[in-house]
Each structure stands twice: as structure tokens, then as C-alpha cells.
Amino acid sequence: MKKLLLPLIFLIFTQGNINSQIKSKVDECFELTSIVFRIAEAPEYSQGRILKYNKDIDSTFAPFLNHKLIQYAKDLRKQYGISYNAISSAASCLEIKNGKVVLKQDIDISKINEIDKRWTPQTFNTFLKYLNDFYKKSNFRDFYTKHSDLYAMATHSLDERLATININWFESIFGEKLGNPIVIASLTNGSSNYAFLIPDKTKQFGIVVGAGCNNKGEPTYSPSVIPIILHEFLHKYTSSRIYDNWTSIDSAAQKIYSHVKEYMHKIGYGSAQTTMIEWFNNLLVCVYFKEHPEIQKAINTPAVHFIAEYQNRGFIWMDRSMLFAQHFLNNRDRYPIIDNFMPELVNFINYTADHFDQVLNEFNNRHPYVVDAFPVSGSILSSDLDSITIRFSEPMYPFMGFHYVSDKSITLPTLPKNPKWKDEYTLIIYVGNLENSKTYGIAMPSYFFRSRKTYTMKNNFEYIFKTKQQ
Question: How far apart are CA 360 and CA 260, in angstroms?
Fold first, then answer.
């Protein structure tokens, strides 16, 4: 019976999708532009996870590091902020025709800033001119063709994940079909994923999803990519609804953004409007998982984990948001689609902004922290010390990780065997080979330690001790 459970769940979950299979592809223009910005040392395009592919990129295109395109890409990033999704938006406007990189036929270059405000007709034309020269001189087509087997692995894996998504859910929430979006698998993007809208007559919507890597060094997409795909699909609906209601929430959004600006900059969201769009997207990802408990089981991730993860990233009002969204879910007769509920969400945003000090207080009190360390940090101890006991304020997940402390003159002690959790609150760290008259320290980075509610420690914890002079 157990052997049949997972296939049965899969069958139930996917039966509504059989006639509307969304298929992915690797696109030459997307891979070309991503690789260009990798060569130009853009951090968000330097996170590819397939090491062999990375090495092939770096070795193949090393002779072209001084090509005028590469310097221009660096200038675009520095002067105009052209990075992240501005690159994928540009790629969506391009195609390869007769061995040349060209603008798609129905796209008006004078309106190119409609794909992203950072582009202008002049900068895009110059970029395209240099890109085409680079494409020819570097024989990029040969590189692209050479890696067709890797691309096939990536799309096969991504298609398996796409098949598990209930695409009918989007129509039930928005009253509008998802349609047949373009799904681009990227071997260069790593953890970065983007949505785009082709500004031609079709106005076709699409997403770019960065590939992971399995233990054989091959491109793959684990189940953890499902919320990412959902998030990017949701951009088809959420951005326009935030734009339509912006005058009603602008002031509140600015207030909220002022409190979370540093968090948002770390994840590439540089404005209050972008932050609200991403919040709305993330909220609806949580709603999806709330309504699909079978997929929570399939990827072994309860919906509450997504709420906490989004809060850890800086959307610290997400728990309140999900509680409020429950009113929508409980009253679908009154609110058939999200548009009917938008006035209530507008009120929620304004109320949240006016009470954000309380939101901050709630969030800060959810972080686990170290309540006890034995021996006490800062002690002078015998060099025969064999273990340190750390106790936390909350039941913890059995994750852990250690670094050198911020003072680089302090030595990380040898850990002769793996630390272990005595219970959900208590971590035992074993140490050994200590020298007399020496200072040792262990840094416990906050992101390695999270409570059972999945909230991370707010601050790093450093444990420092000295050994006695014998």
C-alpha cells in the first residue's frame, strides 16, 4: 500500500493538467544574454550551479573578456541598473535569424522601455549591436549546440515539476486562465528566476527558472522549485492589480518599505512598489499551498514554512497577511475571485502600515535566541575541555553550521566529532586538541539555526573562550 501512495497522490494532483501540459525549453537568446552578464561579472548571473557548464563558459569565452560588449554590459549595470530581470526582459525581445541576433518582428524599439524602464531605445540598440558582434565572433552557436544534451536534461526535469502544478487554480483565483506561458530553463541563472511579458502583439507571458545540480553534476529541478514556478506564474496577475490600486496604497507602501528597505535590497527589490508586488505574489504562493495539502506532503514542506521563510526574507507582515487571506478563502461566495477582495486587501495594507511598530514587535519576539551556554562564553578554561552546551529559547530544527568569529585573530577550535542535539532545545558542540594560553571562538551564523516554527535567529551568536596557562 505504501508503494502506491505517492503515485496515487501524483495521479490525483495532475489529472486536471493532462490536456494542458506546459513544456519548458532552453532558449538561445536567454542563455546568450545570461552568459554575457556572467562574463561581465554580474553577481546574479554568476551563480550557475552546473560546475562543468560554468567551466565551459569561462574557458570558451575567455578570449572575449575585452570585447566591447562585456565592457558595455558592465556600464549598463553600473549606470542604468540594468541587471536581474532587465536582462531576461531584453532576451524575450530577441531571436536568432539567419545566424544573427535580431529584434523580433512585431516589437517597436521606440517602446522598448515598456519591457523595463531601465532600458532606452538607444541603450538597447547599442547593446543589440555589440551582442550580435559577440555572437558571431565567439561562435556562440557552436557552444550552444555542443551543450544540447545538458539542455535536454534540464527541460526533462523541469517538465516533471511543471506537470505537478494545478494550473486550473489560477482561473479559480483570478477568473482568468493561465494559458500557455513560455517556460525557459536556464543553466546560467542559478537561484535567480524571473517573469517577463513579450511586448509584441501576442503579449505572451513567460518565466525563466534557474537550474539546480544533482550529485552527478547534471542540471536538475528538485521539488523545491515548485513555489518558485508558482511565484513567477503569479506575476501575470499580481503586478497589474498592485498597479491598479497603487494610489490607494502608495503612502502605506512607503511606510512599510521604510522599515524593510535593507531586507529588500538584499533580495534585489529596490522600491516600495516592487516590494508590494512581491509581497502579493508570495502571499498567493502561501494560499496555493494552503489549498493543496497533497503537494505539501509531496515536497515535505508545510505551508507554515513558506510563511516563515518569507518573513525571514523581510516580508515580516506575512503571518498577518495569511491570517487575513483566510477571510477570502472562507467567503468565496462573497468573493468569487481576488478582484472582489482587493478593496479589503487595500484596507489591510493601510491598517498594517499604521500599526507597523506592533508588527515589528511581533516578528522580533518570534526569533529563537541562545539563553544559556556552558561553560559561559568568555570564560578561561582548562585545555582538556571536551564539549560546550548551547541551549536555545525555542525548539529547534536539527540544522547547524559554524564559522570563524568576526575577529580573525581568534582560532576556530577543532571539532573532533559532529555536534549533536541532546534534545530540541540543546546542542552539544564537541571540541578537542586545545592549546594552552590560546583564544578560541565559534561563530554560529543566524541562518544556520532556526526554530521548529522555521524562524531563524535574528543575530549571529559567537562563543569565545580562553585556555589557561599551565
Answer: 10
94 by DSSP, 3-state: which?
A: strand
What is the pLDDT at residue 4?
Answer: 37
Q: Using a CB cutoff of 8 Å and minimum separation of 24, what contacts does 411-417 make?
A: 411/438, 411/439, 411/440, 411/441, 412/440, 412/441, 412/442, 413/440, 413/442
* Strand-strand pairing, 439-444 and 24-25: unpaired
Between 374 and 450, the more confident residue is: 374
Beta bridge partners, 414, equal 432
Residue 259 Cα to chain centre, angstroms: 21
Single pTM value for the model = 0.74
Judge whether residue 10 has pLDDT over 50. no
Element (H, E) at 96: strand 94-97
pLDDT tens digits along 109-168: 888 888 888 999 999 999 999 999 999 999 999 999 999 999 999 999 999 999 999 999
CA 64, 65, 68, 69 dihedral sign is: positive
Q: Which residue has the higher pLDDT, 294 or 86?
A: 86
Interior/surface letters 312-335, b for 16+ CB within 10 angstroms, e for the rest? bbbbbbbbbbbebbeebeeeeeeb
The continuous run of DSSP H or E covering 255 comes out as helix 246-266
- DSSP secondary structure letters along 45-56: GS----HHHHHH
- Residues 323 and 330: beta-carbon distance below 8 Å: no
CB 233 within 8 A of CB 308: no
